[in-house]
């Protein structure tokens, strides 16, 4: 069977490797429990050890491939419920109760993903190589704390992750799909756009309007791929200036994805308290209504939407982003093909 990650199309659909991906909200992984999920084409089990540290591993017992998520949480290790094989947080088989002292004991036989928790979410590094040391997660400033405060909105949608990326890099849809929103009713419904390069990605912005509506998006790739944008807010929405959104999406499989939307404002002290109160009491429900509009539109799009598009000037960012993802996937596959481990595996077949 061909692994879809071995093709450019597969890597684009399931996400390039050697990237940090957000997996879920932190509170989804509870102490003493095991959480099973699919992300970026990988079957995973998430769990916390007795110290509360989260771990992300393949959901596969190294003995016979049974689901570890169906097993027993033992504090500092997981035990497979099929034959009792115990694996620790480093992926090392620490005990084989049915055959003590066998060759499997002491082996690092389970893939374990580098993981960290920030801004209320669990992030994992999906590398081409299991042993490669990942770069430190570069958290976007608005969700890194300090003078910023944020709320995380998490969703799972039945649509390819690329549809969400397109949506985020398409400022013009705000003036149409969200035209009845409390913040996106103002401004023109026609515009010209430009791409502005940065050292970490690019801006896609209106040339004739700024600070009126959803007027620009920024694509950023610092090891974590994310989109930033701002929505102007009236004074009645509380202190903190423009309403900033940091968003990222993670493929679940080719047809589903998880998306993370941090709603941020630059506030501290009593202004932070005021903003948090207003958000919970007045704004949160409205924001979920906007996300529901996006969900309805994206989930209804056909699987072959790309094959039958007729794009125009407003879609420059979409074309650019798709080319970037394809170029990244192609480069990764070429590099993997040159590695000694990959050549040895190919010769073994």
Automatic annotation (TrEMBL):
InterPro entries on file: Cholesterol_7-desaturase, Rieske_2Fe-2S, Rieske_2Fe-2S_sf, VanA_C_cat
Keywords: 2Fe-2S, Dioxygenase, Iron, Iron-sulfur, Metal-binding, Oxidoreductase
Coiled-coil spans in chain: none
Keyword Ribosomal protein assigned: no
PROSITE patterns: RIESKE
UniProt xrefs under PANTHER family: 3-KETOSTEROID-9-ALPHA-MONOOXYGENASE, OXYGENASE COMPONENT, IRON-SULFUR DOMAIN CONTAINING PROTEIN
Protein name as catalogued: Aromatic ring-hydroxylating dioxygenase subunit alpha
High-level lineage: Bacteria, Bacillati, Actinomycetota, Actinomycetes, Pseudonocardiales
């Amino acid at each position: 069977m061909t692994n879809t990650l071995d093709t450019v199309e597969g890597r684009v659909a399931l996400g390039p490797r050697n990237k940090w991906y957000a997996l879920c909200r932190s509170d989804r992984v509870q102490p003493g429990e095991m959480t099973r999920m699919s992300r970026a084409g990988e079957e995973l089990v998430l769990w916390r050890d007795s110290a509360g540290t989260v771990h992300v591993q393949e959901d596969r017992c190294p003995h016979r491939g049974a689901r570890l998520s169906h097993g027993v949480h033992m504090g500092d290790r997981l035990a497979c419920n099929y034959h009792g094989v115990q694996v620790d947080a480093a992926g090392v088989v620490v005990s084989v109760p049915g055959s003590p002292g066998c060759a499997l004991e002491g082996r690092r036989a389970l893939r374990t993903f580098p993981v960290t928790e920030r801004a209320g979410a669990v992030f994992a590094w999906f590398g081409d190589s299991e042993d490669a040391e990942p770069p430190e997660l570069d958290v976007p400033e608005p969700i890194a704390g300090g003078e910023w405060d944020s709320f995380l909105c998490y969703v799972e949608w039945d649509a390819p992750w690329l549809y969400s990326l397109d949506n985020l890099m398409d400022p013009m849809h705000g003036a149409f799909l969200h035209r009845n929103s409390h913040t996106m009713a103002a401004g023109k419904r026609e515009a010209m756009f430009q791409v502005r390069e940065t050292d970490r990605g690019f801006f896609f912005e209106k040339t004739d309007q700024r600070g009126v509506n959803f007027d620009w998006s920024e694509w950023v790739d610092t090891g974590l791929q994310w989109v930033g944008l701002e929505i102007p807010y009236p004074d009645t929405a509380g202190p903190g200036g423009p309403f900033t959104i940091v968003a990222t999406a993670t493929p679940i499989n080719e047809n589903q994805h998880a998306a993370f939307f941090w709603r941020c404002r630059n506030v501290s002290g009593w202004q932070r308290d005021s903003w948090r109160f207003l958000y919970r009491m007045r704004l949160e429900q409205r924001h979920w209504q906007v996300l529901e509009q996006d969900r309805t539109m994206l989930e209804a799009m056909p699987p072959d939407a790309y094959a039958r598009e007729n794009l125009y000037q407003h879609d420059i960012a979409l074309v650019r982003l798709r080319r970037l993802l394809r170029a990244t996937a192609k480069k990764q596959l070429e590099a993997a093909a040159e590695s000694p481990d990959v050549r040895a595996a190919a010769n073994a077949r």
